[in-house]
From TrEMBL:
Family listed: Belongs to the binding-protein-dependent transport system permease family.
Keyword Transport: yes
Protein name (record): ABC transporter permease subunit
The keyword Translocase is annotated on this UniProt entry: no
Broad class of the protein's primary localization: membrane
Topological type in the membrane: Multi-pass membrane protein
Subcellular location: Cell membrane
Signal peptide: none
Cross-referenced InterPro entries: MetI-like (IPR000515), MetI-like_sf (IPR035906)
PROSITE patterns referenced in this protein's UniProt entry, alphabetically: ABC_TM1
UniProt entry keywords in alphabetical sequence: Cell membrane, Membrane, Transmembrane, Transmembrane helix, Transport
Source species: Clostridium aestuarii
Domain ABC transmembrane type-1, first and last residues per copy: 68-248
Length: 258
């Protein structure tokens, strides 16, 4: 009976949470509708109904799915490369102070450079289909790198000294001391990259105009002043970013339970 009661309480709590989120979403949709009515100009600020109607029309078209798939692919490739480069360089820099000092000016420069500048420079270097990937890597890997570096520096120095005293091999120090300690920092860095990666990728697509991309569709909608479609594609980007982030959180949550 106690187990059954606990399950009911958990289910009730979950239901309340869903209802609460739904009401919050409804509130903002209402604000959106009121703003649209107040401005009273569909070109400047379309209503939620017209935007969702346009979105439904887009979903039924083949190029919509081709564009979404290609953009997702670019973001995934960019994130994977950012994570690999960020972790490797972060671990090496955390262990070797000279490497940290060597990379520091480059990391500071990348962080300080405006996104638009990065995209334009990359546009000169590579083909239009690869601009979004490289630009996203440039913007995302420093976040992973910085977090991993902080994680390495936060490792208990006594543990490292003890491992050296007992002549523990470096690979075991890395595997059993450093990696478990930096895991939360890596997770935090990836969560930051998931949002930034989508923003940079779509912005890069707008400028580089690869054949199938969300960015190109945004640019086309803006060019012909189709604000409803512009809003619809923006919602697609927000939803994809939200889905990616929640999928990653769900994966980490399940991993923690194992």
């Amino acid at each position: 009976m106690k187990i059954s009661t606990t399950r009911v309480k958990k289910q009730t709590k979950k239901t309340k949470k869903i209802i609460k989120k739904f009401l919050i979403l409804l509130f903002w949709l209402l604000i959106w509708e009121l703003c649209s009515l107040f401005i009273n100009n569909e070109i400047l600020f379309p209503s939620p109904f017209s935007v969702f109607r346009t979105l439904c029309v887009l979903i039924g078209k083949r190029y919509f799915w081709q564009s979404v798939f290609r953009s997702i692919l670019r973001v995934i490739v960019a994130l994977i490369l950012s994570i690999i480069i960020g972790i490797i360089l972060g671990v090496i820099s955390g262990i070797n102070e000279f490497v940290e000092e060597l990379l520091n000016p480059f990391i500071i420069t990348i962080k300080a450079t405006p996104v638009i500048s990065i995209i334009i420079i990359v546009l000169v270097w590579v083909t239009s289909s690869n601009v979004a990937i490289l630009a996203s890597v440039f913007m995302c890997f420093p976040l992973i790198y910085t977090n991993v570096l902080e994680g390495i520096k936060s490792v208990n120095k006594n543990l490292i000294q003890m491992a050296h005293i007992y002549k523990v091999k470096r690979k075991y120090i890395l595997k059993d001391i450093y990696l478990p300690s930096i895991k939360p920092y890596i997770v935090s860095g990836i969560l930051m990259c998931l949002g930034i990666g989508w923003k940079v990728c779509v912005a890069s697509e707008v400028l580089s105009t690869p054949r199938y991309s969300i960015g190109l569709n945004l640019l086309n909608a803006k060019t012909i002043l189709d604000t409803e479609e512009l809003f619809a594609w923006t919602i697609v980007v927000v939803l994809l970013s939200f889905i990616f982030e929640n999928m990653f959180k769900y994966y980490i949550k399940n991993k923690a339970k194992e």
